Amino acid sequence: MQHKFGAAILLGSLLIAACPALAEAVLHRGNSGEPQTLDPSQTSLEIEAFILKDLYEGLTAYDAAGKIVPGAAESWTVSDDGTVYTFKLHDKANWSDGSPVTAEDFVFSMRRVEDPKTAAGYANILYPIKNAEKVNKGELPIDQLAVKAIDAKTLEIALERPTPFFVELLAHQTALPVNKASFEKNGADFIKPGKLVSNGAFELSEHVQNDHLTAVKNPDYWDAANVKLDKVIFYPSEDQAAAVRRFEAGELQLVYNFSADQIERLRASHGDEVRVNAALSTYFYSFDTRVEPFSDIRVRRALSMAIDRDFLSKEIYSGAQLPTYSLIPLGIATYGEPAKPDFAAWSQLDREDKAIELMKEAGYGEGGKPLNIEIRYNTNPNHERVAIAVADMWKKTFGANVTLLQNDISAHYAYLKEGGKFNAARAGWTADYADAENFLAINLKKNPVFNYGRYDNPEYDALVEKSYNEKDPAARAKIMHEAEAIVLRDQPIAPMMNFGQLWLVSSKVKGWQDNGSNDHLSKYLSVAE
Fold first, then answer.
1. Neighbour count for residue 20 (Cβ, 10 Å)
2. CA distance 191 to 449
3. How far is C-alpha 435 from the chain's CA centre?
4. Is-contact 253 506, C-beta < 8 A?
5. Per-residue b/e over 200-216, b at no fewer than 16 CB within 10 Å?
6. Is beta strand 84-89 parallel, antiparallel or unpaired with respect to 493-505?
7. DSSP 99
8. Which of 265, 355, 356, 438 has the highest count of CB atoms within 10 angstroms of its CB?
9. What is the rounded CA–CA span in Å between residue 109 and residue 375?
10. How far apart are the first and last CA of the chain?
11. Dist. CA 372–CA 367, nearest whole Å
């Protein structure tokens, strides 16, 4: 009797120890690259946004379905003329060190983004705020930025003009708050483990460069009771084949981006764990307009015409990306059908014939000066296959001598953003907010960080600027269509495909929802045993 009772106690102890409810809930995320930074003011990549939005929380945020919801602000009101927003912060919103999140924290953070000394690449995200652009250009002191703490938990933001998508801008990673005390104490090291103080659902516990980044549940987060995960580990899985192998071995439960030629095989093996979702994104090649012969519109148009987008979509991406000739993707309700260049309606053979004529007219190709082109792209099997295919198209059409240069994602974009010269460079743009202006802005002269090819067209710039001041939605959309038509005529970039978001999502991951914004905060996810 005593022996049986003791065995029962032992068995019960073992069962309790093995009980899933008591096990640590850990999500392993494959993140397709090493983040360049964890400083919200310096961020520009999706792979950084996935991490930053777990660590920090802006005034607004995206829910699991990709819709804007209250974040650190529990509510807000807007003035009748649409130019003054007043945000009420959650009473229980705290930093991971236990100190309260205040309106002054957002004043400090937004001033820091617009301070010219910060050199924030995405400072223009907050340009709708009154005086933001002038502050960022050094024309006004930073205390003139129209962001004001009414009291500890009330923030007022005045705008230059009504901006219908302003609350979406505030969910962007650039608008995430930084802890002032930690920043002033640690300087540039404030982003390191043990020093990074955050206000999101998770806090940074470990970051081993090019290996993994670990975030643990933040007990001081205002909504911590509804966060189901104890820990999230991000892996910079730039090697897509290795990431897929780790997913299939059960080592990763989420993988962002995999080689598109694997879609059919993976679907056969994993069914609904393979997720392909349309995104507000455009895949394009940028041409450096400072460098001959890419400074010649005829050359740029010819090169773009010779790209067989249908081939790229079908043969390389297995239909996971759709061919396009437009800069702005379908799906933006306030914009409608995107503009297209004249050659979009032609057959591919007609495009190639016209391309050869244009190239000869410019003095290059067969019978003219040799056409030497270097294609730069970030390391990725799909991008490599696209580059090889485009190189072959340009060789066959023009007799071009094409070479390829690949770099890891951080080095690739750092080179482009810092103004390095090139011939043709692979790039892509995913909407920071669902408005056509977000895509048009990357070709503005005043936006050199993302205007990689340094396109400079005063007529285009004037139309985009005009759209900012147009309050009538239909009239504003018409102006933006005129601007898109100009950039498609000049082809400083060659739009090629609209992205499909490629994810592998384990059946053990609960709470996942496909969405166009590609926001998947770990606070909404859980892992079933």
1. 9
2. 22
3. 14
4. yes
5. bbbbbeebeeeebbbbb
6. unpaired
7. P
8. 355
9. 38
10. 35
11. 14
